[in-house]
């Protein structure tokens, strides 16, 4: 056990180290009291900002050719399983395309559905060369559809001024491309008007 003088020296040194902002006289005055309240000085921790991971810019995506389909992959037969998956997806989405299903309900769901894998036909167009093009939609962008035909040709068909039709289980739906100028992700959240002017 320490002696009384050693104990006083230890306590004085401990208080001085614990309370660096307090003068020696003030510490000595505190020692005459019955209780001593130690102050705690904590260092402020600097918060490290998390770096947000940025995706590729549109220019970088073009340079890397992320959305381009290689010529050897441009074959209609390769994407037929995708079409079968799309048909099952639409049947599940519309709870089965039954004969007594209300057309406007199915139409409203198709407007927001993902069309990758759907077989579409250009039925009307201001450009006659587009009429009759039939194939599976491989990619949908804001302004165009990329369609692979049975002849294994990749066609880029603009939505503007074109009317597309798609058929599933006897139900035929028409897509007016001019009213469809949205990305697939934006279209799923958009509210479409049931009535409106229909034109090319």
Automatic annotation (TrEMBL):
Component of ribonuclease P, a ribonucleoprotein complex that generates mature tRNA molecules by cleaving their 5'-ends. Its main location: nucleus. It comes from Leiothrix lutea. It comes from the Eukaryota. Component of nuclear RNase P and RNase MRP ribonucleoproteins. RNase P consists of a catalytic RNA moiety and 10 different protein chains; POP1, POP4, POP5, POP7, RPP14, RPP21, RPP25, RPP30, RPP38 and RPP40. Within the RNase P complex, POP1, POP7 and RPP25 form the 'finger' subcomplex, POP5, RPP14, RPP40 and homodimeric RPP30 form the 'palm' subcomplex, and RPP21, POP4 and RPP38 form the 'wrist' subcomplex. All subunits of the RNase P complex interact with the catalytic RNA. Several subunits of RNase P are also part of the RNase MRP complex. Keywords: Nucleus, Phosphoprotein, tRNA processing. It holds the Pfam family RNase_P-MRP_p29. It is found in: Nucleus, Nucleolus. GO terms for biological process: rRNA processing; tRNA 5'-leader removal. This is Ribonuclease P protein subunit p29. GO terms for molecular function: ribonuclease P RNA binding. The keyword Nucleus applies. One of its GO terms (cellular component) is ribonuclease MRP complex. Belongs to the eukaryotic/archaeal RNase P protein component 1 family.
